Amino acid sequence: MSVLPGSQSRPALPLSVLDLCPVPAGATPGQAIANSLDLARATEALGYTRYWLAEHHNTAMLACSVPELLIARIVAETRHLRVGAGGIMLPNHAPLHVAETFRVLEAMAPGRIDLGLGRAPGTDGRTAAALRRSLGTGTATGGEDDFPRQLAELLAFLEDDWPAGHPFASVQAAPTGAGMPLPWILGSSLYGGDLAAANGFGFGFAHHIQPEYAEEAMARYRRHFRPSRFAAKPHAILAVSAIIAATDDEAEALAATYDLAIVRIRRGEARLPLPSPAEARAYRYDADEELVRRHARGRLQVGSPETVVARLRALAAATQADELMVTSLVHDHAARVTSYRLLAGAWGLARA
Predict the structure, then answer these.
(1) What single-letter DSSP state applies at residue 62?
(2) Nearest to 44 by CA among 321, 339, 344, 301
(3) Which residues, in sequence order, are bridge partners of residue 118?
(4) Measuring CA to CA, which of 32, 59, 105, 248 is 20 to 30 A from 72?
């Protein structure tokens, strides 16, 4: 019975990266992807544990519509970092396709691939319908309510373990013998933790999306966890949004980008790239937008290393997280790398 990587005791709680592959205003998607490759190399050198890529569609702000391709590039550019999806939105994909994709990735980098699975679409409803080939009806089929069946089918393909007489019993996910990536369930509500616990998976909670459920979801996950062939004990990752700079004021200046980006997403304007701090500071929020901005700030940890580390340690203690995964929406790539470097040093990572 294996234990999920990162479960061993360490001097400091492990830190990991959740990358949305932001496309800054004035840059191309190719530059955004090059930035992600550079960040992966930098965070590996700093001692971060894993590097996950998100799945988002129908947006010019992010270049992570196909995280599997980014995973393949990053495992080729790194040596020890665990690389995976944070996550694959399973309702958007055929389970056999996901199984084969991640078997190929596991063959490319044995023992380094994580398969994080979510049930949200990662986009708007119409785009989800297009992804799921149901545009004619105007609705998405095979969606979130079908997630348990999709998950069971995916696991059967990954493990070559079908009930006798099942229609897919003769179908094998290729390449056979390639091994199996470690499965994780991702969520921002109680549902994901309950499902992860029942199956003996790792669990990643999106504090940066729905912080109010974090403590209860992670407590329930640990309380109801059933040891499995995947893990002997629970492993809970808390995903947080953070922006760190040398001083609180410098970090606040960088965070202006986050403020305007979130407001634009809420207004359905995701076709605009990630705004610069100057553009964001010049923007004038109306009353409703200001409410959105302030509410979103409750999901962001921003400040100097000392300020942010104190907040993150408090969050980790309150949720009993086994690992923290940090995402940073920063316009300037050098400032984003610096944010992760300052956090690693203040956190006490071994190689920082």
Answers:
(1) B
(2) 344
(3) 89
(4) 59
